[in-house]
Specification:
By secondary structure, the protein is an alpha/beta fold. The protein is built from 15 helices and 20 strands. An 8-stranded mixed beta sheet has the order 8-9-11-10-14-18-15-16, with helices on both faces. The two termini are 35 Å apart.
């Protein structure tokens, strides 16, 4: 991963492959002219104060995500200046939004693939800004090329153009001896590294990442970071009565797993449970997905990857809160042993579920894991899942939905998502939709009304949450896997959505500020 450093060096004398600066669209009072953002004063001075004019001549507008490269001025040890757009200039005495800086840093880092070192002269007014920029750099520089010939030959990740990710980023204006600045980039490094590991898991082909392989990755990380781990295999799941997980995995040659990761702090006063859907490949089962809908279904374990990354991040940060992660892992395949539409499963909670559609499998594995998590009486449970196409239709491909059994808790999770820079939106759980899941055969069916399908899924999950436990459900079906071009710090493929929200929730709980 890209190395992060803080530097007090002046831009002209720093040896690097490039100097990154920010530019913005001027306020109305400036007639919309391009503005050089704070942090780049030394660079602008070297152009005799005409850097903005030069960039405008080259076509720069300051729009978010725009990158303009130009030769560095005489006397600079770096040969290139990279100007990245920050969007509209903020109001007087207001700084740039954290997410704007994070995205700009990510865009620049991706544009600098192949470089050994870049100096980032973006606006840093406080330690938090250094953390935000550092996070953007580390997430934007990410690439997944383990299966490409060039990457295998070199023994390291390679970008599509054959260039390795940016090797080092020096944040100019940072204070290397300041504890707050050091803590900010250390946090950025820990969370980003685990988020990128989640991306790797999502991007790994399903022939190499089945439930057993995923569990092995979790076990190795747990050992490294002092996290207690328990893995329930098919025998243990059968003995325990985990009918949902077993039912989903029944058609696959690769057996299901339930992984429990427990991070504990001696100073904790609160406990959280994170539950992740981990369908390592979803064919739809007997209710087979049609061509055009199954090619990216390796990403159906993104919820479990997010939970895994969040628990490890909490351990690395030493948060004073107890966090337990539950990874409900299975592969949903059709075969002679697969669960059929019309079958009834007896869940871990004791409830029976009539399976009307085997492609509504995520809620089945989550139901068992939610009930298992509830038995430990945590203060709150959050589940994360690529659960429904209906949520994508409602919110698009970049925003996830938040449902909960408590409005205040839903608001607290939404605020945490906003603080983390992850687009999310609160969604209701309309009681009238519950009747659609009534079954003449079992306690409940796994399908209900077609309209509002994402909300129906949330209502189903609520049935398996213990009494008096605050619970939220994050449906990340839209943003978990980016099928379009990279943007900001978001790559094509696995995105690591929800990791930062979960970590922020854990931080707030540790501080006693969660709702």
């Amino acid at each position: 991963m890209t190395a992060l450093t803080l530097s007090t060096a002046a831009a002209p004398g720093l040896r690097a492959d490039a100097i990154v600066i920010g530019v913005a669209k001027g306020a109305a009072s400036r007639s919309g002219n391009l503005v050089v953002a704070p942090g780049a004063e030394a660079v602008d001075k070297a152009y005799d104060g005409r850097l903005a004019a030069v960039l405008e001549t080259l076509g720069a507008s300051g729009a978010e995500g725009e990158v303009t490269k130009l030769p560095a001025p005489s006397g600079f040890k770096a040969p290139v200046v990279v100007a990245v757009g920050l969007g509209a200039e903020p109001e007087k005495d207001a700084g740039f939004d954290a997410e704007v800086l994070r995205r700009a840093a990510g865009v620049a880092a991706r544009a600098l693939a192949g470089a050994k070192k870049a100096a980032f002269a973006l606006p840093l007014t406080e330690a938090a800004d250094a953390g935000v920029v550092g996070e953007g750099v580390l997430l934007g520089a990410y690439s997944f090329d383990a299966y490409k010939e060039a990457g295998q030959a070199q023994g390291s990740a390679k970008a599509k153009n054959g260039k390795a990710p940016l090797a080092e980023a020096a944040l100019l204006g940072g204070k290397p001896r300041d504890k707050a600045y050091k803590a900010a980039i250390e946090r950025a490094a820990a969370v980003s590294e685990e988020l990128n590991r989640a991306r790797d898991l999502v991007n790994t082909p399903p022939n190499d990442l089945n439930p057993e392989a995923f569990a092995a990755v979790a076990q190795a990380a747990a050992k490294e970071h002092g996290i207690k781990v328990q893995v329930l295999d098919e025998k243990a799941l059968t003995k325990g009565g985990y009918g949902g997980i077993l039912g989903v995995g029944a058609g696959s040659a690769a057996g299901p797993r339930l992984v429990k990761l427990s991070y504990t702090s001696s100073k904790a006063t609160k406990s959280l449970a994170f539950v992740g859907k981990g369908i390592t490949y979803d064919s739809g089962g007997i209710s087979l997905k049609p061509a055009g809908h199954n090619e990216t279904m390796k990403c159906d374990m993104a919820g479990a990857a997010a939970v895994f990354a969040a628990v490890v991040s909490a351990a690395r940060l030493g948060l004073e809160v107890n966090v337990t992660g539950w990874l409900a892992l299975a592969e949903n395949m059709p075969s002679g042993s697969a669960t059929r539409p019309g079958d009834v499963l007896r869940m871990y909670s004791g409830k029976t579920v009539e399976v009307l559609n085997t492609d509504a499998e995520g809620r089945l594995v989550l139901a068992d894991a939610l009930w298992a998590a509830s038995q430990e009486k945590p203060d709150a449970i959050i589940d994360v899942a690529t659960l429904t196409g209906a949520m994508m239709l409602a919110l698009g491909s970049r925003t996830y939905g938040i449902m909960a059994n408590d409005d205040a808790f839903r608001s607290a999770v939404h605020e945490a998502a906003e603080e983390a820079g992850e687009p999310a939106w609160p969604m209701p759980l309309p009681e009238h939709l519950r009747k659609g899941m009534d079954s003449a055969t079992a306690d409940i069916a796994n399908m209900g009304e077609r309209m509002g399908g994402g909300l129906v899924a949330g209502l189903f999950l609520r049935e398996f949450v213990g009494e008096d436990i605050a619970w939220a459900h994050l449906d990340i079906a839209g943003p978990a896997f980016n099928e379009s071009a990279p943007f900001g710090y978001t790559p094509k493929g696995g995105t690591g959505t929800a990791v930062r929200t979960l970590v922020r929730v854990a931080e707030l709980a540790a501080a006693g500020d969660l709702g």
